[in-house]
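help with this.
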Amino acid sequence: AVAPAPSSKQNPPHAALSPKSREETDRPGIADLDSWVDLENNGSPDDYSWSEATGTVSPGGDGIPEIRMFPNGADGSLPSGNRGTVNIGGNSNSTAVLIDQIYNGVDCNDLDYHGGSLDFSEGPVTLSGNPGISNGMKTAVTAVIGQPRVIFLFTAVTGNGANTEYTVVRVVGARIMAVTMTGPMSNRAVIIQPASLQHPSLIPGSAPISTYGTLLASPRLVK
């Protein structure tokens, strides 16, 4: 049972998030599809390494490229006042809610707001944006360096700040590699690297396994 593989914007693979009870799924981030597809096709800077043996991130390449998710993506595509988070479980997630979801994930109560799941099999899903990864979230985001997370990929964005809406078409897996949340905005960054991720809250898609960021639904006993 697999989810996203490399694709064009015209034919994105499908998957969904759907916790079955209080079981949680990792809090998603947001990035633009064009930057991710460019990474898949052409590579990107490779400045950090992930060690499975030690569970740590260190400077120096490991053969897997990275992209800058925050603040403005690789191409400056995010609107003014919005730095790449989406609201799950409402249209105005507070910093406290975002921090809780970073640490503990998104659960069924959050997804009840969206009809019980975020399912891309019928087409794009529109999610409202939250105006930023604030300094108040620094400790939480830094605490998950080295951990894989679900990343939503969008093809269009309208509005700005708390009125931003993203058109989300695809989900992938990515590992948080580096976090800088101090100094001028031009120096701040959340750097991610494609990473496979398995979770019981993922609903399988039909696409083949990807080199970059495949999401895997956990095995289920069917008979």
In short: The radius of gyration is 16 Å. The longest strand covers residues 165-180.
